[in-house]
Amino acid sequence: MSWDEGRLLALEIDANYGLAPAQDASRAVLRDPSVLAVWAWSPRARLLALAPGLALPGTSDADQEYSPGRLPGVLERLTASLHEAVAVEGGPCFVFP
Question: What is the mean pLDDT of residues 16-20?
Fold first, then answer.
């Protein structure tokens, strides 16, 4: 049996935080604007969902090797772009309220 890990990550984010109906297949948008971003990744899939109107900070790093002990570059750029004191720890899913 094979799993579509990208679809599973989308279902997880939708169940926990709510995703808006897909207007653009290349971008996941959160329903609740009080949640700025959710980054979920697994060994074979990555998904960055952003609040409406929030711009994607650079590339998605979709090809970056999965490493639970290391933050992906997209998270470092997202944290810098929020211009807030944001502590990033944990994983493999990260939420930016």
Answer: 88
pLDDT confidence of residue 61: 57
Number of alpha carbons in the 13 Å side-chain half-sphere of residue 21: 0
What's at 62, amino acid-wise? A
- Average predicted confidence (pLDDT) for the chain: 77
Residue 90 has pLDDT above 70, yes or no: no
Q: Which residue range is the domain that position 30 belongs to?
A: 5-96
CA angle 69, 75, 77 (to 5 degrees): 135
- Give the count of domains, the chain: 1
Would you call 68 exposed, middle or buried from its count of C-beta atoms within 10 A (0-12, 13-18, 19+)?
exposed
